[in-house]
Specification:
13 helices, alpha+beta, six-stranded antiparallel β-sheet, 371 residues
């Protein structure tokens, strides 16, 4: 197959995407497949990286894919399909870049929020992962919670704060009072549509609450306030299109105050991963079952990682969030959980591409015209 691995992007998770994509490209079987590397700059420009870039990262396990501009830009052509959905543009000359499937490794905004997925749909290109709707909804933590609540699934209570609420002193004071009444200090504050804990903070007083809200609003116009839950952090990988599979759950044991961006990606000792999680058989069955139900409720397809809180006091599971393009780094939970369940990294990548093509063919078999 001809595979286009796309990474980088206009996101606070740009650098994480580079690391994830490096791992993906390194583990794709280049004896079977031709791999093209497409980088997206922080300004949103798409470039084709030279073939030497793939060799460089395969030869060096610690190397990270470049996001530097090149002489070859990439254009997306509506209706182009696998023959010309992606095209190279060099010195004003446009040439098709044949692509059987796109493997987007784009974390966060302009990545797993439905925007690139919409481009691929318009270009008639198969791609790995969730479709436009499930990507967009899953990116919005408030909408995700609302759908899960309607499906009867357990979520952490929350208060939604819009930028307009922050600009209205009376409304904002009412929100603070509601938070103090409904929750106890501390509380967590996070952007609705940012991943990897970007912009998230913990507040133990009114002053800290205001500061955390202002920080979160730098990343999104809508944010959530949630109570502190003394909990274990359990994660579960899910794959599938029509037949959904969940995998052995793992546990994140952060050494930081909470599992923030630094703990996830910067501090090598920021967290320990326990795979499998130390749970009895009933709890393992329960969390895997909820993960499948949560994925289905959002019309998920392809793959995702579902994150849970396990309340230490009550033993109850709460859904925290879903990541439709989870980390693929060498320390990321998603591939590690699949591997612990008997699905090695390279085989996982093959499976995700097969699922992407299966979904594409199924959707293209539907009628789009009365004639």
């Amino acid at each position: 197959m001809k595979i286009a691995v796309i990474y980088g992007g206009k996101t606070g998770e740009h650098e994480v995407s580079q690391v994830s994509a490096s791992s993906v490209a390194r583990n794709l079987n280049t004896d079977k497949h031709k791999v093209s590397l497409v980088s997206i700059t922080k300004a949103g420009e798409w470039f084709l990286q030279p073939e030497s870039e793939l060799k460089r990262i395969k030869d060096d396990e610690k190397a990270v894919l470049s996001d530097a501009p090149t002489d070859v830009k990439i254009a997306v052509i509506p209706g182009g399909g696998v023959k010309s959905g992606l095209c190279t543009v060099e010195n004003g000359v446009i040439k098709p870049l044949e692509t059987d499937i796109v493997f987007p490794v784009l974390h966060g905004t302009y990545g797993e929020d439905g925007l690139p997925q919409g481009l691929f749909e318009m270009a008639e290109l198969p791609y790995c992962g969730c479709d436009v709707m499930s990507s967009a909804v899953s990116m919005d933590k408030e909408k995700t919670k609302q759908i899960w609540q309607m499906a009867g699934l357990p979520v952490v209570p929350y208060i939604t704060v819009h930028r307009a609420d922050r600009d209205d002193e009376e409304a904002f004071n009412a929100i603070i009072k509601k938070s103090e009444r409904d929750f106890e200090w501390p509380v967590f504050i996070k952007p609705c549509k940012a991943g990897s804990s970007v912009g998230a903070g913990k507040a133990s007083s009114r002053d800290e609450f205001v500061a955390a809200v202002d920080e979160a609003l730098l990343w999104d116009d809508k944010i959530l306030v949630e109570p502190f839950v003394e909990a274990r952090e359990i994660e579960c990988s899910v794959t599938g299109f029509r037949d959904i599979t969940s995998y052995i759950p793992g546990e994140i044991i952060p050494s930081h105050e909470f599992y923030d961006y630094d703990a996830k990606y910067i501090d090598p000792d920021g967290a320990a991963l326990r795979i499998p999680a130390d749970l009895d058989d009933d709890k393992i069955h329960e969390v895997r079952d909820i993960a499948i139900k949560a994925f289905k409720a959002l019309d998920g397809c392809g793959f995702s990682r579902i994150d849970f809180f396990l309340d230490k006091k009550t033993g109850a599971f709460f859904l925290n969030e879903i990541n439709t393009i989870p980390g693929f780094t060498n320390i990321s939970m998603f591939p590690k959980l699949c591997e612990a369940s008997g699905l090695p990294y390279a085989d996982l990548l093959e499976k995700l591409m097969v699922l992407g093509i299966e979904r594409f063919n199924a959707m293209r078999s539907l009628k789009t015209s009365r004639k």
